[in-house]
Design a protein that fits this description.
Blueprint: H1 7-10, H2 16-30, E1 37-38, H3 50-63, H4 79-90, E2 102-105, H5 108-114, E3 125-129, H6 133-141, E4 148-149, E5 154-155, E6 158-162, E7 180-184, H7 196-209, E8 212-216, E9 242-247, H8 249-252, E10 260-263, E11 269-270, E12 273-274, H9 275-286, H10 292-301, H11 304-330, E13 335-337, E14 343-347, H12 354-365, E15 367-368, E16 370-371, E17 382-386, H13 391-402
Helix pairs in contact: 3-10, 4-10, 5-6, 11-13
The structure holds D-malate (MLT).
Length: about 400
């Protein structure tokens, strides 16, 4: 009899957002008359902007013409997109990144799940707690996380770095030395950030400990404050210790189109092994390139029109964030995030458990959010609302929450 990858059997429950989806569908089926407002998963609601749509149409027409038809995309991405990314995302911020260090992909979720493959099976991972579940789950699948303690909801071989209101959502350096440190900033789920000086400390720490930071910057477009870095490469020394992952989902609404990229600097080396070359090898073997049409759409995000139009969408979502944040504050809740990120992280009332508050909100306000404990044990007693809904739904959801 063949054998399965038994690491998969260790995974508790289903993926967080699948569990929520099932619960909400069951509630909707049992209550067909109720209008449910969904502020759970961070999925965008605004359509793709005109500059992106125009680029898509143009690229589709090119694919219909034998003279401009394209087959397989270069597996690391088209030069037109990689060059644009370097100019607009990195050079413009004073970061020293070259096009052959950019790997275009079908999104940040895939990259953040796959990147662990280029590291040794015994690598110790450190994650913030709460954390985007993909980082831990993908390491569970790879057999790197040890034994699961169902009561504590922790893995024996994962180093957890709590980020709570007590430490101002700033992870502390772990007592045990990690090999891989996952940092998502602006943070999903807490919506909080680090200053440049705080991130610099992490870069210095990683260089000193010969660890790698996997820096998920999917929400960088939402940064409003000056002292918050958009890229880890704004910090000195990051080229020798950091991989950065970016997404087009949140800044330009590509959740259904799929596009992202990962930066692996050539200076990032384990001895004389260049991690960039390993990722290039992995990418070349397992990936056939993001579609030409989608890469052209990605390029359009950086055009003057695309930039102005996507900035407007970001402002739209951040108006929702203010509505949610201020509404919760008015109603007496303790609230975090929502200033440099499209997530609002709140304390549940009266010490309620996160999943109990989820049920309470769904049943009594017909509003869906995400239980903090779904992101890790330190998320217990917290709850996340997303600003990616429509303005009308954000306002309506807050009216209902205030009326509880
Ligand atoms: C979230 O809600 O945390 C995100 O939408 C998940 C994702 O981007 O994969």
């Amino acid at each position: 009899m063949y054998q399965v990858n038994e690491n998969y059997l260790k995974l508790p429950g289903s993926y967080l957002f699948s569990t929520i989806g099932k619960k909400v569908n069951a509630f909707a089926e049992a209550n067909p008359d109720k209008e449910i407002l969904r502020l759970g998963i961070g999925d965008v609601t605004q359509p793709l902007c005109p500059a992106v749509i125009e680029a898509l149409h143009k690229a589709v027409d090119e694919m219909a013409d034998p003279a401009t038809f394209r087959g397989y995309a270069p597996d690391l991405g088209y030069d037109f997109l990689r060059n644009t990314i370097v100019e607009k995302d990195y050079k413009a911020r004073g970061c020293d990144i070259s096009p052959d260090e950019i790997f275009v992909s079908d999104g940040a979720k895939s990259d953040s799940g796959n990147i662990q493959e280029i590291f040794g099976a015994c690598s110790k991972i450190a994650v913030c707690d709460p954390v985007y579940p993909v980082y831990v789950d993908s390491n569970v699948m790879a057999g790197r996380t040890g034994i699961y303690d169902a009561e504590a909801e922790t893995w024996s071989d994962v180093i957890y770095m709590p980020t709570t209101k007590e430490n101002g959502f700033v992870p502390e350096k772990p007592e045990k030395r990690p090999d891989l440190i996952y940092l998502c900033l602006p943070n999903n789920p807490t919506g909080t950030t680090l200053t440049k000086a705080q991130l610099q400390e992490w870069v210095d720490y990683a260089n000193k400990e010969e660890a790698v930071i996997i820096f998920d910057a999917a929400y960088e477009a939402y940064i409003a404050e000056d002292d918050v870095p958009h890229s880890i490469y704004e910090c000195d020394g990051a080229r020798t210790c950091a991989i950065e992952i970016r997404s087009f989902s949140k800044n330009a609404g590509f959740t259904g189109l799929r596009l992202g990229f990962t930066v692996v600097p050539k200076d990032l080396k384990a001895g004389d092994v260049c991690l960039r070359d390993l990722w290039a090898r992995r990418h070349g073997t397992k990936f056939n390139g993001a579609p030409y049409i989608v890469q052209r759409a990605g390029e359009a995000v950086y055009s003057p029109e695309g930039k102005a139009q996507t900035d407007e969408q970001i402002a739209y979502y951040m108006r929702n964030a203010s509505v949610i944040r201020n509404g919760l504050l008015d109603a007496g809740y303790e609230v975090f995030g929502g200033i440099n990120a499209p997530y609002i992280w709140m304390k549940t009332p009266d010490g309620m458990k996160s999943w109990d508050f989820f049920d309470h909100l769904l049943e009594n306000a017909n509003v869906v959010g995400t239980p903090g404990s779904g992101f890790g044990p330190s998320g217990e007693g917290y709850f996340r609302l997303t600003a990616f809904g429509t303005y009308e739904n954000s306002v309506a959801a807050l009216e209902r929450i205030k009326a509880l």
